[in-house]
Write a structure and sequence with these properties.
It contains 15 helices and 5 strands. With 356 residues, it is α+β, with helices and mostly antiparallel strands. Strands 1-2-3-4-5 form a 5-stranded mixed beta sheet. Helix 3 runs antiparallel to helix 4, helix 5 runs antiparallel to helix 6 and helix 9 runs antiparallel to helix 10. The chain is elongated, with a radius of gyration of 31 Å. The protein starts with a helix and ends with a helix.
Length: 356
């Protein structure tokens, strides 16, 4: 970082001198300054690049970045609009000119209240790029409080809640901000993003457990066609894997009445549960019952790294119905045992005697 700052100072002292570095390096340096949040220095370097290399192929992109910095760092809407319009005229077939057209449309759409909310929003974005999250949140909240009817007001609350969750470790404040969003802008176009941020805040508040999973599931249910549905699904999978949480796959309506005969360690790192149920069980019922026993017992294992095995019998210990085996970090594996006709008859008779 010290090297970067020293380079900036040296370049500032020789702005009027012919640069010794290549155009490509000069452009890359300006881009790097912008990425690291040195907006003032980046603005200077893009101007310097354009002055010394007016015919270079990177000129359209440099003009675009200069216009963005004029808008985001200086907050000068008029100057930025003029620069973007000039870019469209002088390099009309470039990719930068197409981006300039989109940016001009964005400025026009969000320039209500003489552009004051937009300027404040851009200051918030600039503070976020400088990793000054507290200041960014202050700008976003001030925007909504000062101009609650501005076009950017609801988005400002979303961005404030996001930073409160991800950067400031303030999930309670984020949830309060999101409640304000829901109460004030019930039809906001940013509701899917807000729902996802709410789930992140709940995860930050309660940890990666059932509360967080429920919140992420709500995102997928309420906004199935949004990008946040996919993000929520990925997060749910990650939480379950990391927290070693199992989910039900089989219909619970097919779970049989069963008896737990014993449970405990059977060999090293293997927690075993033995159950028994009616001889009349179908394959679907066996699967559902094995899963039910696994879900009810896997958290009881003494060591979180233990494998869990559920053994099911029609007639313990003679006739096995199947097994469910689960290793933390992987999906359960269900195996159904096939019975011979003689075993079926024997189990049915024994089942009748047990019921009597």
């Amino acid at each position: 970082m010290k090297t970067v700052l020293m380079t900036i100072l040296m370049l500032a002292c020789v702005t009027l001198a012919e640069p010794a570095e290549s155009p490509e390096r000069a452009f890359a340096f300006a881009v790097q300054l912008q990425l690291e949040g040195y907006d003032a220095e980046a603005l200077l370097e893009f101007k310097r690049f354009l002055f010394y290399h007016p015919g270079h192929s990177k000129v359209p992109e440099a003009k675009l970045q200069l216009a963005k910095l004029t808008l985001r760092y200086l907050g000068d809407l008029d100057q930025a609009t003029s620069a973007l319009t000039e870019l469209q005229t002088s390099h009309r077939y470039s990719a930068a000119a197409q981006t300039a057209e989109q940016l001009l449309a964005y400025i026009q759409e969000h320039s209500d209240y003489a552009g004051r909310p937009l300027r404040l929003y851009l200051r918030g974005q600039a503070a976020e790029r400088r990793r000054e999250a507290n200041q960014a949140v202050e700008h976003f909240l001030e925007l909504q409080q000062t101009w609650p009817q501005a076009r950017l007001a609801d988005l400002a609350l979303v961005d404030a809640a996001r930073l409160q969750t991800t950067e400031l470790d303030q999930p309670n404040a984020a949830l309060d901000t999101l409640r304000r969003l829901a109460d004030t802008y019930p039809f906001s176009a940013h509701r899917p993003a807000a729902a996802f941020i709410r789930a992140m805040a709940i995860e930050a508040q309660y940890g990666p457990g059932t509360e967080a999973i429920s919140a992420y599931e709500t995102v997928g249910k309420d906004y199935p066609d949004s990008e946040y549905a996919g993000k929520s699904a990925v997060r749910i999978t990650t939480i379950r894997r990391q927290a070693q949480l199992l989910q039900r796959q089989y219909d619970p309506d097919f779970v049989l009445n069963y008896e737990v005969l014993k449970r405990g360690h059977a060999g090293a790192n293997n927690f075993t549960v033995v159950i028994q149920f009616s001889a009349e069980a179908t394959e679907r019922g066996i699967q559902a019952t094995l899963e039910d026993a696994l879900l009810k017992h896997y958290k009881l294992r003494p060591d979180k790294g233990d494998r869990v095995t559920v053994e099911a019998y029609f007639n313990y210990p003679l006739t096995k119905a199947g097994t469910a085996e689960w290793t933390p970090g992987s999906d359960p594996v269900f195996t159904i045992s096939r019975r011979k006709a003689t075993d079926l008859l024997k189990d049915t008779i024994l089942d009748i005697f047990r019921k009597k």
